[in-house]
Structures are given as C-alpha cells and as structure tokens.
Fold this protein.
Amino acid sequence: MKKKIIYLIIFLLLIFVFSVFFKGLYKPNLYSPSQTSNKSLIEFSGKELFTNIEINSSQLISNNKFTIVNIWASWCVPCRSEHKILMDLSKNLNLNLIGINYKDNSESAKKFIHELGNPFSKILVDNSGITSIELGAYGIPETLLVNDNAKIIKKYIGPLTDKNVKEIEKITNQ
Amino acid sequence: MLSSYLGYYSLILGFILSVWLLFDSFISLSKKNKNLKKNTILVLFLQLFTVVLSFLSLVYSFINSDFSNETVYNNSHTTKPLFYKISGTWGNHEGSLLLWLLVLTLFIFLFIFKSKNQPTKYKLLTLFFQQIIIIGFFLFLLLTSNPFNFLFPIPNEGLGLNPILQDPALAIHPPILYLGYVGSSIIFSASLAALVQKNINADWAQHIKKWIFTAWIFLTLGIMLGSIWAYYELGWGGFWFWDPVENVSLMPWLCLTALLHTIVVLEKRLILQSWTLILSIATFTLSMSGTFLVRSGILNSVHTFANDPSRGVFILIFLFVLIVLSLIIFFFYHPKESSEKKIFWFSKETTILINNWFMMYFLSVVLIGTTYPIFLEVITNEKISVGPPFYHKLLIPFLIPFLIFMAIGPKLKWIKQAFKKIKIQQFILFILSFLISYLIVEKTSVEHLFTTILIGAAFYLFFITIGEFFKKNINFSQNISHFGFSLFVLSVLFNSLFSSEFSANMKIGEELKFDNNLIKFNNIETFDEKNYKSIIANFDIISVKDTTTFNPEIRIYNQPNILTSEADIKSSFFSDKFLVINLLKGDKLFNVRYQNKSFMIWIWISVLLLVFGGLASFVKRYNR
C-alpha cells in the first residue's frame, strides 16, 4: 500500500513537471536581462532621414503621451514583414512613432519607406549603430514603448506580433 | 553540395542500422549465445562509421564554406580563419546535436569493445538501452534539426559565427564537455542493464567505475574550459555567473561526483546498491534535462540556439520517455538491500554517505535556482531571475562542514573506526588553520567570524592533504583531488576577498588617480583585420613599484555586425591585472574598467589538480 502511494506521487509529480515545461515552451520567451519597466530612455540625437536636420529625442518624446521607438533597416527581412503592423499602429492617435534607421544606405531606406508607406513621424539615421547599442538593442527589429516621461514601458525584441499590438493598444488607450 | 548528400544519407543509413541493432540485441537476449554475434559488432562499427562520416561531411562543408548548406550559411563566413570554420561545426544547434550523436555511438562502441569479459546478456542489454537513446537522437536530428538542409538559390556569403564564440577555449569546450556530458549515457545504459541482470556486485562496480571516471574527467575539464572562456572572452572579469547553462553542466557534475564516491562503497562493502543506481540514472537524466532546458529555448542565455517549440516538445517527450522507462525498470528490478550489513556511524562509508548528502543538497539548490523561474512564470506569469546571491547564501555556509568531513573522511577505516585519542598534531593543525585564517581575514573589511571559519576549514583540508602526501600507503589520486579542491576553495575565496576594481569614463590623453595608482590613457590605433576592424588602446598604470602597459582591444566584426571587447590580462603568480574598455560615444570617449584579480590562475590550476587526481585513479584502475 505504502509503495503504491509512493509510485502514485512520483507519477503525478512527473505529469506536473511535464505539463509545466510543456506550457513553458509555448510562452513567448525573449531574453531581457535587464528589467526595462522602470528604466528611462536615454537621450539620443541624430539627423532626420528626409530633412537632414539634427533633432534630439527629448523634444519628440515629451510632446506625446506615448512614443514608440522602432529600430529598423531596409536590409532587414523581418522589418519588412513587420512594417504592416507599424502602419496600423500609426493610426493610433495616442501614439507617436519614431524610427531609427540602423546602419543603412539612406537611398535604400528612402525607397523602402516610399514602397511600404511611412508610419513614423520622424526617422533618425543611425549609421554607426551606436545610438541603437546605447538604447540597448540586441538586434533588429526592436521596439520600445515609452511614455511622456521617457520611461520605457515595454521592450520588444524581434518583429512585433499581433499580440504585442493588442498589448500596446491596451496600454495606450487607458 | 555533394558532402551534404553524403552526410544526410549516411545519417539515414545510421538510423536504419540503429533500428536493426535495437531489434537484434532484443532478439539475441532470448538466445543463449556465449559471445556477441560477429554481425552485431560489425553493424555497431558501421553505425559509428556512418555518424563519423556524416560529421566529417559537415566539417568539410564548413571548411569549404559551402553555403548551399543551411547550417553553414547560418553560422559561417568566407573570411573566418580556418580554425573557427571548423569549430563553427559544433557552434550551432544542428552541428552540436550531430556531435551528441557521435559521442553516443562512440561510447557504446568502445564499451562493447572494452568489456570482453562481461556477461553477454549484460552487454546486449546495455546495447539495447543505448540504442534507444541513439534512435531518439537520430529521429530528433532527422525530423527537427537536419544539419544538411539545402538552400536555393545558393547565397554568396554566410551570416557568420557569433564573434564571442570565436575563441580557442570555446572551440574545444563543446567536444570535451560532451565527452563527459553525453558520455554519462553509457553509465545510464549499463546501470539499467545491470539492474535487469541483477548483477550489481563488486565486479560490476569495478567495471563501471572506469566509465564513471572517464565521464567525470571530461566533464570537469569541459566545465573548466567554458569557465576560462567566460573569463577571457566575455570581459566581465568573472569565471562563474550562475547562468542557467552553466548550472545545467554543474548538475550532472555534482551527481557524477556523488556517484564517483558511492561506487567505491559499493565495490568495497556491497551496500548502497539502489542509491548507486539512482545516481547513475539521475546523472544522464540531468544531462538530458539540461539539453532540454538549453535547447528548447525555455530558458535563455548565450548558449540558446534553438527557439523552435517543436524541437522542445520532441526533447521533452523523449526525456520523459527515458525517465518513465528507467523508473519502471527500477521499480520492477531494484535490488533488496542486504539488511544484515549495517553501516556503523563512525566509518569511511558514513563519511562518503555524508558527502552524498551534501552533493544532493548542492544539487537541489542549483536545480531549484535554475527551474524555479520557469515554474513561476508558467503558473503565476511573473518573471524573475535567480542570481548569484541566492546560490551564495544557500551554498557557502554548507561548505564549512563539507570541507571538514572531507578532511576527516579519508582517514577513517572501512566498516568501523575505533576511537583513538585525538592526535595532538591534528588538533594543532586545526587550531593553526583557524589562526592563519584569522590573521588573513583581519586585514580585510569583511564580516570576520563567518569568513574566518570558512577559510579556516579550507586551510584545515589543505594542511591535512599536504600532510598525507608524506605518509606511506596513501590513496594518492584521492588525496591529490581533495588537495586540489581545498586549493580551489581557497583561491576562489581569496579571489573574492582581495580583488579590487576601478572604473571610469576616459578620453584619449587623460590621466586619473585611484588608490595610489595613476592610470594614463595614451592613444588608440585602428587596424583592419581579415574579418573585423580592431581598435587597440594603449594604457599605462603607474603604481609606486612599477609601470604596467595595457593594450585592450575593441573588435568590430563585419559578419555579423557585433562589437566585442578583448580584455588585456596580465597574469602573474598571485594576481591577474585585467583592463577592458568599451566604446561610449564616437571614437572619443571610452569606458575603462581595471581589475586586480587575486589568485586567478590558481583557480584553473586547482581544477587541473582535481582532474589529475581523477586521471591518476583511472590509470591505476586501468592497469590492474
């Protein structure tokens, strides 16, 4: 009798561990070593892609309730597929989108925008990639959601998904 | 192109051979053959051959930068040096799994080849269980992670290997580690076979011990190489970060180390049979779980290659099939402990048992620390990360009794130790250890009492093991390993006590003062190398005694585009001086970090001593 109970407990434990791991596999799980939720976005500046005027991030961010900073490049294949989602997000009135053009050829970047539309209010050129590294980018595309106090609310590594969009809408429409 | 075909079809052939071996060994079990059939050995050899061929084909594709192969395209680049082209073979998910398979087949082949005197049934059963594992990995490779996928149109250039993986220590780290990590599979299969055969006796213990030692030596070396890599390449100045992936290699190590001690008890006293078997099964299960945790993407770290859930599901199911299989076999066949043999509380076997309890405690701490975040996230959706403070708080206090038992244990006799009067010199040694420790700790600004006791305990083991070297009839290999361990604990403790750090942002030409030293940033030079651009800075650190010049480097790799910092490390007998820079803004401002790490090389030396002890023991047994 006692033995049977032990077997049963082991068996149940195994099922439990299995199901936790199984569920864990399907969790979106992207590496974010730092807790971004309470961090502030660093100030950055750069030339605008179309106008070539030097602009600073602080003025852009404080003027809007929420800002999305998206790091992209015309050579990045996932960015292309992500673009539709950014176009949809740009319709959200509470949201201002800033693009950071990462290590790109300005001609092909402009072509990319003409072809697929421009969701961004401003696009900053980051030829050296240093701004992106300072923003803590791991790779592109990468998206940061920032409030008007320059606090980073969310950080998405990799292309945005529909699920992410819903989350962003929920935060910005509160 | 051709080599990919060759690799792929030899994998399929290898898979077919494995299935044949599985059935053949099962059928042969019911027959009463005296020896293994010649066919079986031939097919076993062919199986190894197909996997070797497949592996070499992949290496060949990497050397020739054959970008029609998807794995090569994703992980190589024409401008990479040849050495890293080859090591790129196992620097990715698919290739490293092929290496897994290679080690699995190599070990079963060597096992059958080397155990001629063992019972045929036992060999057949081992073959049978090992083939189950091999088939699982063949399927995993062929169904979810084929290393020979074609790409069309053929790209002109590959994506490159992550620069932080381009390091000599890391190039040999995976193969060495795998020999231990995957090599433990043979202990698993052989233990299940012995369990079914019911021949868990002194002979079996003696025979399996060689394999335990083999796995242990390679696992220890492999972990050390990984740690050396982290120290030199990552530029953080540490050697162990309690990263999930490091933990995953540490867990089988703890289990294997416990097994290493228990198997001696089994050999000498024929007790603890069930416990020995549980440890043998657990070691490989932990290796498999580790592979699951790392490769499924359920955890994330530098080592995570795959982020495809279907791969995770496969390993998860396979892992649980193996666990359930071994549990069922254990429940049905587990040996009855002979009840007449009681363990006397003051004997060698008791101290080995105590060693096991400690090992199991260390193991559970690491296991909980590694998997708890997953459980929490799935159940409550909360994300946490368990860091070094957790491990330090829970592990370090228990090191004190562990070290003392380690000093006393080997001196006791088997079965029963008579109480003698405590020898006066032992007592003096004990007092002396704590006195030295106190004098050292007093100079620092840490919590006195606890650190004094900890270092004192380590010194005690240190002196006792040194003393043993001068006696006759000692167990040399065991003593040198224990001595190595005491040296290891001491160097790690001194390293954390006496290391100092200085960090600042500096411009070229600037000078700064810190702790009686002057740091001068002289200039930078840029060079163009084959696959990266290099910025080499020149620093002088002027202390009262001397001036040291440092040339730390920043590398900007072109494929993929990544910045790495190469620290300049000046190693000496008692300390490492470590200077690393990071680019801040433009080419002007740099973040400079200078560290003085005490007793750094002694950490590596002590681990080598530990390994050397294992090796000595292996050679001794082998020659018998």
